[in-house]
Amino acid sequence: MNAVENKVYWANEVATILNVSRSTLRKWSLALEAEGYAFARDEHDRRCYVERDIPVFRKMKVMLDDGMTMENAATVAKALYDKEKEDMSGSVSMVVHADNKRSDERYLELVTQFQDMRSLLERMETQMYEQQAELRQQLADQQQYIEESLNRRDELLMKAVREALEERQRVAEKKWWEFWK
User: How far, rounded to the nearest angstrom, does the alpha carbon of residue 181 sit from its chain's CA centroid?
Assistant: First the structure.
């Protein structure tokens, strides 16, 4: 090993090199560790990264940018690292093919879910418009009922006022001595 391979990087340095956040780098590291990839650690059990780790992360970043899941990207990145390390041929192409097949299946599943959600939203929108039309009709009916009720009340009130005025005029026309008759 030469001095470049022995250079140790900390998380913030690798995150800067890859142009990702430290939390993203931590998630990627955990996914790679779940696949069996081993990172160097310091005396406080913190991850430290060496030169060989950076290309693995770069490959993983490309796969994630292409839409692959983190688990699949970690599996492929680990397999690619193992291939380079052990110079094995053919093993990675099978993993990539299987991962692509799983990604395609997942993509089709998501498209189906999206179409189902869209049709559900369209049905809900139709129902909403129907309910709004019903509510508008009910509101119009209620407004008409209120107006008719007010008109009836006003007519009755005016009739009562007219009768009271007529009675008052009739009483005013009577002479005081006629009240006891």
Answer: 88
Q: How far is CA 65 from CA 11, 40, 54, 156, 180, in A?
A: 21, 26, 16, 78, 107
Tokens of 57: 């992360």
* Cβ pair 96, 104 in contact under 8 A: no
Is the pLDDT at 27 greater than 90? The verdict is yes
What's the pLDDT tens digit per position in 53-99?
A: 889 899 889 888 888 888 888 888 888 887 777 654 444 444 445 55
Gap between the Cα atoms of 34 and 124, Å rounded: 43
